[in-house]
Write a structure and sequence with these properties.
The protein is mainly α and 335 residues long. Helix content is 53%, strand content 7%. A 3-stranded parallel β-sheet has the order 1-2-3. A two-stranded parallel sheet has the order 4-5. Bound molecules: tryptophanyl-5'AMP.
């Protein structure tokens, strides 16, 4: 990343807690790639966030590299963007401590993701899960990010980030840039193929509900064939009444660029069988090149590591500047 660049700054991250899904591609990765040419972008593997749910250490190490490889396979270009692992930049944890003192117990308890994850992990509702959004705020504020490309589910965390930044700025004078969420109009909430009223989530146990970015063409086509729709055979975009069909139309649009109106025309008078087959093939064609690139990239661990080491150094330089300011403002002595 160019020093003193006047380009606006973008930061975003994904947890390496499993193979990424088409939801991550639609809600985040696709936009990350599109933003690279016009902005100074930093993209992070949020491994510190991932340990708020128990992880097997060997799996987490492996998935961290796999996630980095998927970023590259999706088109993140290390010549243009800074790609790094969160835990390799210690300022994330350091700023989190300071911002924790600005976050209210009540407001963190209201976070939807905290409530959902607590319900799913009743045996391990740890404090990390609770302060998770403060770590996320630190990720963003350390880099003075102007915008944060995420899916719909992260919107509440972005609002909290803005509130924490404003509170700190008000108390100690201007320190942090107030970031804007960047949420795509189409694809910000890809739904489960088996229950189209809930988000496609990698923690879903039903494998038929998700499309992984390394699924084969056959798996993709079969999963879409089995997707839950409705009983009135009409291809029409109507999220409230036809969530399954609308979700498939969204995937078809993302894969081909065809507008909803034209999709409706294309399948007028056809049954869902034809529609699902076309969606399946289009999505498979979209994912296949990514999967092939991924299979190549993951073989070269040395290259991946050197990209990530360089990325952490670059990220650290920027993060350090912000943390130094913060430490000075809060009154931490420096000799
Ligand atoms: P995570 O890892 O759950 O998801 C990563 C990104 O993918 C988006 N996403 C989806 N978009 C559309 N449809 C879906 N079904 C879908 N599933 C996931 C998410 O909205 C997200 O943009 N806390 C974050 C990671 C994070 C972060 C950050 C993001 C850590 N620090 C700083 C931005 C900035 C998370 O758990 O995302």
């Amino acid at each position: 990343m160019e020093e003193n660049s006047t380009k606006k700054v973008i930061l975003s991250g994904i947890q390496p807690s499993g193979i990424l899904t088409i939801g991550h591609l639609a809600g985040a990765l696709k936009n990350w790639v599109a933003l690279q040419d016009s902005f100074s972008c930093l993209y992070m593997i949020a491994n510190m966030h991932a340990i708020t749910v128990r992880q097997n250490a060997a799996d987490l190490r492996r998935r961290t590299l796999e996630t980095a490889a998927l970023f590259l396979a999706a088109g993140v270009d290390p010549e243009k963007s800074v790609l790094f692992i969160q835990s390799q930049v210690p300022e994330h944890a350091q700023l989190t401590w300071v911002l924790n003192t600005f976050a209210g117990y009540g407001e963190l308890g209201k976070m939807t993701q905290f409530k959902d994850k607590s319900a799913k992990n009743a045996e391990n509702i740890n404090c990390g899960l609770f302060t998770y959004p403060v770590l996320m705020a630190s990720d963003i504020l350390l880099y003075q990010a102007d915008a944060v490309p995420v899916g719909e589910d992260q919107k509440q965390h972005l609002e909290l980030t803005r509130n924490l930044a404003q509170r700190f700025n008000y108390y100690y004078s201007d320190t942090f840039k107030i970031p804007e969420p960047y949420i795509p109009k189409i694809g910000s909430r890809i739904m489960s193929l088996q229950d189209p009223t809930s988000k496609m989530s990698k923690s879903d146990e039903n494998q038929n509900s998700l499309i992984y970015l390394n699924d084969s063409n056959e798996e993709i086509i079969n999963k879409i064939k089995r997707a839950v729709t409705d009983s009135n055979a009409e291809v029409r975009f109507d999220e409230a009444n036809k969530p399954g069909v609308s979700n498939l139309m969204t995937l078809y649009h993302l894969a081909t660029g065809i507008s909803f109106e034209d999709i409706e025309k294309e399948f007028a008078g056809h049954g869902y069988g034809d529609f699902k087959l076309s969606v399946g093939k289009a999505v498979a064609d979209w994912i296949a090149p990514l999967r092939e690139r991924y299979n190549e990239i993951i073989k070269d661990k040395k290259r991946l590591e050197s990209i990530l080491i360089y990325g952490a150094e670059e990220a650290h330089k920027i993060a350090r500047k912000t943390l130094d300011k913060v430490y000075k403002k809060v009154g931490f002595v420096r000799f």
